[in-house]
Amino acid sequence: MANEPHWDAVGPPPLALFAQEQLRAIGDLTNFRARRRLLRDAPRGDGHPVLVMPGFLAPEFSTSPLRNFLRDLCYDARSSHLGVNLGPTPKVVETLQHRLTHLAERHDRKVSLVGWSLGGLYARELARAHPSLVRQVITMGSPFADISATHATRFVPLRPEGKPLHEAHDLRAALRRPLDVPTTSIYSKTDGIVHWQSCLQDEGPLRENVEVHCSHTGMGFHSEVFEIVADRVALPEGAWQPYARRAEAS
To answer: pLDDT tens digit string along 116-132?
Structure first.
């Protein structure tokens, strides 16, 4: 049975998970062999553009493993040109809109958007503003259902319109509205940065939640996440269907 979204404020994940985050991320780094096997077995792409966006306070190179993986599968995977992601600003919005329109015009095709953590919120809002340019959205540990359910603000507090995130009710409601394009939310119940319930959307004909087993920091290089992303971007445009793990699909 699918997990039901919980739209009330759920708060950040337990401090015990937060304290273990970096140690678990190091463990997630050790699955290089699994990624090499996945690269051999994953479906080859059709060359369409994929725009990948980093998480809060993360530099552009943090998405390099995923982008390189997708390029090896024959996608035109591109960075967001944000540098270090310091949070939403008018400049960030302008840069991402330019990247999306540039890739769509260059290929004359819709763009798949992949966003990690806060990058996933960027991806969703890009798709909301420009649905005709977006093939699908894939988020990785992104708290769009409750933007306040994260430990990230321990480092740099975000106060939209001068309010703490948990009091920004209009923003929180706007961010969790469903999109008009296919959307996959990847989440982990052992995420130490973002509470997993804040990553859940109401499932529907074009919406799904897919659970993985890794840290928040490890999502950018974990084979389980890569397998899901590879499966999703390989779907023919206009033929989206829910994800089925290999064991379930056989």
So the answer is: 999 999 999 999 999 99
Is 9 inside any structural domain? Answer: no
b/e for 92-118, b at 16 or more Cβ within 10 A? beebbeebbeebbeeeebbbbbbbbbb
What is the DSSP-derived secondary structure letter of residue 6?
A: -
Q: Which residue has the tokens 């119940």?
A: 189
pLDDT tens, position by position, 12-65: 766 667 666 666 666 666 665 666 778 788 889 999 999 999 998 889 999 999
- Give me the number of domains the chain comprises: 1
Domain hosting 159: range is: 15-234
CATH number for the domain that contains residue 217: 3.40.50.1820
- H or E element in which residue 64 lies: helix 64-72
203: buried, middle or exposed (CB in 10 Å: 19+, 13-18, 0-12)? middle
Residue count of the chain, please give it. Answer: 250
- Residue 244 Cα to chain centre, angstroms: 18
pTM reported for the whole predicted model: 0.87
Residue 159 lies in a domain: yes
1 belongs to a structural domain:
no
Separation CA 233–CA 245 (nearest Å): 15
Asked if residue 49 belongs to a domain, the reply is: yes
For strand 111-116 and strand 49-53, is the pairing parallel, antiparallel, or unpaired? parallel
